[in-house]
Specification:
The complex is a heterodimer of chains A (627) and B (359).
Chain A (H helix, E strand, L loop, with lengths): L8 H36 L1 H12 E6 L6 E2 L5 E13 L7 H9 L6 H13 L6 E4 L4 H10 L6 E10 L7 H4 L2 E3 L2 H6 L10 E3 L2 H5 L1 H5 L3 E7 L5 E8 L6 E4 L3 H11 L4 E6 L6 E7 L5 H4 L4 H9 L8 H4 L9 H10 L8 E3 L2 E2 L8 E2 L7 E3 L1 H6 L3 H22 L21 H6 L6 H7 L10 H12 L3 E3 L4 E5 L6 E3 L5 E3 L5 H16 L6 H4 L7 E7 L22 E8 L6 E7 L5 H18 L18
Parallel strand pairs in A: 2-10
Antiparallel strand pairs in A: 1-8, 2-3, 3-4, 3-5, 6-7, 8-9, 10-18, 11-12, 11-23, 13-16, 14-15, 17-20, 18-19, 21-22, 22-23
Chain B lengths: L1 H5 L4 H21 L4 H23 L2 H25 L1 E3 L2 E7 L2 E3 L1 H19 L6 H19 L4 H17 L4 H20 L3 H11 L10 H13 L10 H4 L11 H34 L3 H25 L17 H19 L6
Helix pairs in contact in B: 2-3, 2-12, 3-14, 4-5, 4-6, 5-6, 5-7, 5-13, 5-14, 6-7, 7-13, 10-12, 12-13, 12-14, 13-14
Classes of the chains: A alpha+beta (627), B mainly alpha (359).
């Protein structure tokens, strides 16, 4: 206390008391404020925060459904799922990706391909998603990883169901495959439906029956901590497995077709003409779909894509071929409908020329067929007869007859991306300023020029004749099976379409003619008919790949392989009660009768009598000349 | 009971502190995800705390008075030292390491400043004149500026608050108070521009925590979720999902009140607020009954420091104050604050039990 200042203790005490009272009031007021605030949060906003707390705590984790199995008509598994151990990484949770990959590389084998695929995912996929580093871990690798797992964040071992195609390359063009959902697909799918699912059907049946195969996603309500780690499962809504598909496809026939075509490029499509049920859908060369499931590496894909044999091309669905002489099966009916007398005879001198033109349209038989009626013209495949017919009908009527058999439009098969072939379009050509040449009409009569068909269209159109006028819509899936009850629901019968206003008599005439192609004197496909225990009707064809000049003649052995003619054969059997219709095209195979017909016969043998006559052999082309 | 009094222990205050310590043990155990090691460490710290309480309460108020300017001087020197060669942790230089033990000099100031101001006001007639008030203001602002420089906004505010409270208790004129209020209003924009980015952000998100739920508002939002989901009755002891699932940051230290509110609800809060208010009441009573200027100023000031701790912490956890690192007094896990607060209560008890009964 400094000198000179007099302290008034009583006054100071009273002052302090007053101030303390004020401070105490403030303390009480502030505490009251806190209490009101807390009461507001806990009582008034209780529901809001309780919900937030629950949401914090509980996260729905999707359980992807098991994709449906695909079976052939006899129950052979074509596509299934089996569990594989995968090593997955969530990039968001990783501190040092380079270090992690280096360390993991010491524990499990990581080859260049694995790392490349992972780097690709890392670029393209969201960082919070689980990305696959390695699939098919061995038990030993899994055990090694489990031991040191705690050392890193973000790396997890998972048992994933992976799509597998046990038959490998067999029927890949029909079945297709699944692959990882890409960005474009991700934009087009319902994200909720695909929660937890990483794959989607990319091609074939896998693609077109995606909704059936997929199933319904299930959910687990999992209590998670702030780092997203699951603590325990609170509730579970089981996923509903995808439904199984039973195809009409016969894996044995498919194998026979693919083996018979062998190293050729080619197609064999077989179907039940009454129902359109596809029995074989072979397109050679094939490829193994299994590498596509988790993303094929760029090198392998480039090799497939750039192969000159075009294995990725679905020849049955998208191959567009000149029908060659097989078109005569349909134009024969057109002739009858147009009022041609089947008995009317023309003369084939080995060539045909338009009035006032010196250009010779050659018949495949240089010496000519002599006098020819419709029967002979079909059986011996006389070109001159059909040149004349084409000119008589004109391009417009030719077109409308061909359209009646389904050419120029998709068949409506249950695989997406079908090509529709092409019919001659003189109007369109003229609009482009190019005049329609009369000669183009002429060659349409023998299935050359502007007309292009797919093998599937050929088989379907022929089914129309086999079925005596009604043409089925081809279909690969026969029935859908509920995985829980195993109840099979057959698909409703596929719609039938009329191929044209042909009388039964007209159709029987043509069926008879086609029967004689295989069985009759001089028939171009007699090689497969003479020893068959059932009656086959069919038509051979040869489609030119390279134009042959007026003064030249086509000699197969002197023509580069990729320019050689395509061999075609279409057939159905038994003639009186058709159960199978087949279209075979062997690219650069030469002659329908010797190369394509035996393949068709093998398929018919297998389907109708359950075994293939070993005497049936595909004749490797030589310099023979029959069409 | 008489024996405790003989050892200069104020019995009602002692029991209230024991109650808080008990709650603290329950909460630290729960918030640390039932970690026994943490609990044992906490028990040890509480024992140390009560030991310090016991030792300080033996010191006569006259000794405390003589110690005040020394302690304050040492405190200021330590604060300067910490700015020079303190340990940087999380972007702030707050810690001083001496022979393997590290401590925060700012913590010392929470006691030293009230002691210093009490010492000063005991030397002048009250109410103080303008010159005396200015000097007292300077005594306050020097440590506050040094602490804010670290930066440790929470402690700076606490220390500033305690200094201001002392000025008010000393009988500062109302018109000066009004002038100060005006000055603060003018200073706010200036201070704002000199705040660190994270400090500004904390204040901004206070206004709307949901605006940045995973960033600066995360602490506040998760704290409010914990409190709100507790409801009236709470989820029960050890049932705080916010803390157990790691959503709540700093759950055993600064945000332990949120865990308490989640587990014990508004009912538990009523009890806890009751205990705190009782301690404050007891502190004010001690100040009221104190026999000289130094002791009543010191008792009032220390009690208010304790209250500020509590108010700032609960205010921040419940989202009405910005998130500044202030623990819940005597409940949060952590050593330094326990030591400081127990020493403060030791002084209060000393003041109360060393009264001359004749007075």
């Amino acid at each position: 206390m400094r000198a000179g200042e007099i302290r008034d203790h009583l006054r100071e005490s009273r002052l302090f008391g007053a101030r303390l009272t004020i401070v105490a009031s403030v303390v009480v007021a502030l505490t009251g404020l806190l209490f009101l605030r807390l009461a507001y949060i806990q009582i008034v906003n209780y529901r809001h925060f309780a919900t937030l707390s629950q949401e914090n705590r509980v996260k729905p984790v999707p359980i992807p459904p098991v994709r449906g199995t695909i079976y052939d008509r006899n129950g052979v598994v074509l596509a299934q799922n089996y569990p594989v151990l995968t090593l997955e990484i969530v990039p968001d949770q990783v501190d040092d990706m380079g270090e992690l990959l280096k360390e993991l590389g010491k524990i499990v084998t990581l080859n260049e391909r694995d790392l490349k695929l992972f780097a690709k995912q890392l670029r393209e996929r969201p960082r919070f998603e689980s990305l696959t580093l390695r699939t098919h871990l061995t038990d030993e690798e899994a055990a090694r990883f489990a031991l040191v797992r705690h050392r890193w964040n973000g790396a997890e071992l998972r048992a994933r169901l992976q799509r597998h195609y046990p038959q490998g390359a067999l029927a890949v063009h029909a079945i297709g495959y699944v692959g990882r959902i890409n960005e474009e697909e991700a934009d087009n799918i319902d994200r909720n439906t695909y929660r937890g699912t990483q794959h989607i059907g990319k091609l074939g049946i896998e693609q077109s029956y995606e909704d059936t195969l997929l199933g319904t996603v299930g959910f687990e309500k999992v209590e998670t901590d702030a780092h997203g780690r699951a603590i325990r499962v609170l509730e579970r809504i089981a996923p509903v497995a995808g439904r199984h598909l039973h195809l009409s496809l016969d894996a044995r026939m498919q194998a026979i077709a693919e083996q018979a075509i062998g190293t050729f490029k080619g197609v064999a499509v077989a179907m039940d003409p009454k129902t359109g049920a596809v029995l074989a859908f072979a397109s050679n060369p094939t490829y193994d779909p299994n590498p596509f499931v988790n993303g094929i590496d760029t090198d392998s894909y480039t090799a497939l894509r750039e192969s000159k044999d075009k294995p990725l091309l679905n020849r049955a669905l998208n191959g567009q071929y000149a029908p060659g002489s097989t078109i005569k099966s349909f134009l024969g009916l057109a002739a009858l409908d147009a009022g041609e007398n089947p008995a009317k005879q023309i003369t084939c001198p080995g060539w045909y020329a338009l009035p006032g033109s010196s250009h010779h349209f050659r018949c495949w038989k240089k010496a000519g067929h002599g006098t020819v009626d419709l029967h002979t013209a079909v059986v011996q495949s006389c070109d001159v007869y059909f040149y004349k017919l084409a000119v008589t009908l004109g391009i417009e009527r030719l077109n409308s007859y061909l359209a009646g058999f389904g050419f120029g439009s998709p068949t409506g098969v249950d695989i997406r991306g079908e090509s529709k072939g092409a019919l001659p379009q003189p109007d369109a050509k003229q609009r482009r300023g190019q005049p329609w040449q009369p000669g183009e009409t002429v060659i349409t009569g023998i299935g050359q020029g502007a007309v292009l068909v797919t093998p599937l269209q050929l088989a379907t159109a022929l089914s129309g004749i086999a079925n005596r006028g009604l043409r089925p819509q081809p279909r690969l899936v026969q029935a859908i099976e509920d995985p829980a009850t195993h109840a099979r629901t057959p698909l409703p019968p596929s719609p039938m379409q009329s191929s044209g206003a042909y009388t039964p008599e007209q159709i029987e005439i043509m069926v008879h003619n086609l029967t004689d192609v295989v069985n009759g004197e001089g028939g171009t496909a007699r090689s497969i008919g003479w020893n068959a225990p059932y009656k086959i009707a069919g038509k051979t064809g040869t489609a030119q790949v390279k134009g042959v000049g007026q003064a030249e003649s086509y000699v197969e052995s002197r023509t580069a392989e990729h320019l050689r003619d395509h061999a075609l054969f279409i057939a159905f059997a038994p003639v009186d009660d058709p159960q199978i219709a087949v279209a075979v095209i062997v690219e650069n195979g030469g002659h329908g009768g010797s190369v394509a017909a035996p393949i068709a016969r093998k398929l018919m043998d297998q389907y109708l009598i359950g075994s293939v006559n070993p005497a049936i052999k595909v004749v490797v082309p030589n310099s023979g000349d029959a069409d | 009971m008489k024996r405790l009094q003989r050892w200069h222990i104020d019995i009602p205050l002692f029991y209230a502190l024991l109650a808080l310590a008990g709650i603290s043990l329950l909460m630290v155990y729960s918030a640390s995800a039932e970690n026994l090691t943490v609990l044992v460490k906490h028990v040890v710290r509480l024992f140390v705390g009560f030991g310090i309480l016991f030792m300080v309460s033996q010191i006569r108020p006259e000794v405390l008075r003589r110690l005040a300017p020394i302690l304050f001087g040492v405190g200021v020197l330590l604060l300067i030292a910490v700015l020079g060669f303190g340990i940087v942790l999380k972007g702030a230089r707050r810690w001083l390491g001496v022979g393997g033990v590290s401590f925060q000099p700012a913590e010392v100031m929470k006691l030293a400043l009230p002691m210093m101001l009490a010492w000063y006001f005991a030397r002048v007639p009250l109410p103080p004149n303008l010159r005396q008030l200015a000097l007292a203001g300077l005594i306050t602002l020097v440590p506050v500026a040094l602490i804010a420089k670290q930066p440790d906004l929470g402690t700076a505010i606490l220390v500033l608050g305690s200094g201001f409270a002392m000025l008010f208790l000393a009988g500062m004129y109302w018109r000066i108070l009004a002038a100060l209020a005006a000055l603060v209003a003018v200073a706010v924009p200036y201070v704002w521009t000199h705040l660190h980015g994270y400090q500004q952000k904390r204040i901004l998100t206070l206004l709307d925590p949901a605006s940045d739920p995973l960033g600066a508002g995360y602490h506040t939002l998760q704290g409010m979720i914990a409190i709100g989901s507790g409801g009236f009755f709470g989820k029960g002891w050890l049932n705080s999902s916010q803390a157990h699932l790691d959503y709540l940051p700093e759950s055993s230290t600064d945000f332990i009140f949120a865990v308490f509110a989640e587990e014990f609800g508004l009912l538990g809060i009523l009890v806890l607020l009751g205990i705190y208010l009782f301690i404050v009441y007891r502190g004010f009573l001690i100040a009221w009954l104190a026999q000289d200027s130094f002791t009543r100023m010191l008792a009032g000031g220390l009690t208010l420091v304790f209250f500020f701790y509590f108010f700032v912490n609960v205010g921040m956890v419940s989202g009405i104050l910005p998130v500044v690192g202030v623990p819940l007094p005597l409940i949060s896990y952590g050593g330094t604050a326990v030591v400081t607060l127990m020493a403060a209560f030791g002084m209060l008890m000393s003041i109360h039990t060393h009264r001359k009964m004749t007075g």
